[in-house]
Amino acid sequence: MSALSAAEGRHAVVIAGAGPTGLMLAGELALAGVDVAIVERRASRELIGARAGGLHSRTIEVLNQRGIADRFLAEGQVAQVAGFAQIRLDISDFPSRHPYGLALWQTHIERILAGWVDELTVPIYRGREVTAVAQDDTGVDVALSDGRSLRARYVVGCDGGRSAVRKSVGIAFPGWDPTTSYLLAEVEMASDSEPEWGIRHDGLGVHSLSTPEDRGPVRVMVTERQVGDTGEPTLRELGEALVAVYGTDYGIHSPRWISRFTDMARQAEAYRAGRVLLAGDAAHVHHPIGGQGLNTGVQDAVNLGWKLAQVVKGISPDALLDSYHAERHPVGARVLRNAMAQMTLLRPDDRLKALRDSVSELLSMDEPRRRFGAMMSGLDIRYDLGEGHPLLGRRMPDLEVLTADGPTLVSSLLRDARPVLLNLGALGEFDATPWTDRVRLLDAKYVGEWELPAIGAVPAPTAALIRPDGYVAWVGQRTEAGLADALTAWFGDAQRRPNAPGPA
Asked: Do 166 and 229 fall within a single domain?
């Protein structure tokens, strides 16, 4: 646990919450040289009540852009994890270097991210939580649960669905109330009877008992007979729920953790209120069907990190932060909609089962499979950056291009979270050198077809301006029209000099 001294009490950015979203954002800001700190209520890294169990293709690509994907791949199990309403979607033929998902519990995902953040020397104030924030013209006061406070130029709430940060600034959280609730836990079992391992569907809902690893605890998920209250669930409640489904509680004892989740779907009305921003579950909550929650949060962080760094450093005006809401709010809304649709298809009703069978047949066809597979894996995200080349606003394919240093993967050019202007043809007479202090200019060649998931082959551009999050901000096609405008819009006026990204 970090001590809180007077010198440590001021930072450029304070993040509430050291879950995957908060850790990823801290890493992004630290790579940009921004003074960032995290406040985390857990006194240790032990994870309580995790329900996320893997990474989707796009998230693996994002981690690979920072050079850390191998850390996760070494511990997880590569698998085809994309699915819609538990209908498997094979993406192995997608144009990606990672056309698969990764089965890996959130416990390990957080541990690996925390190790990366430690290497970047980000301080984490553990054993306390943000209880309120109050902003003024120059910064934000951050009240902590131990009675102390921090001061920051910006604050990002990554503090979950009950976010104190969101509530403090009065951002509405509209959506749909829960209709179903579930208990999830890791427990020991003492029963002599052989448990009914695997997934079980019945008139109540879906339940599962996962076989333990190395004689460890059993992971249990059980649907409750009625929507549970908002309090912390107990071992007794879990036992009663097991008896209702399996006829026995299997002698459960010694829980590592027990949590409750529902099919509630809510989204923050705004992802920004002045100097306060929201990401991850603080911005959007929904049923974990499809495994999209953690992945959406991590990608929120990667979209926000470089923008916030540029504003803190004075490279870009404060208005750049408005693009965070403009780009990520529609993504979150889409996730909420498809999560609700999936849960509807899984309701224990014969008519809905017939509908699910029809959807399953539809998704066995190639075109629907590719469209839904791209959506669920995050590979089809397109930010609205205007009309033009199909690549505009989409992820840059991880091509192997030929540079003066030899064959180079595009992902390796983004290790330091710095934008890249990749020249794949003649850029004419336009001079991009005024931005070289913040944009890497690189001449390269590529021979081959360009292909995007769910779209197919696209015309080869002569140049691409790649943002630090890996999305394309400008595409050259024989002419350089609009490049100066794109460079200025995303990476600041060339005459604007950075300032020190220090504390408030």
From this structure: no
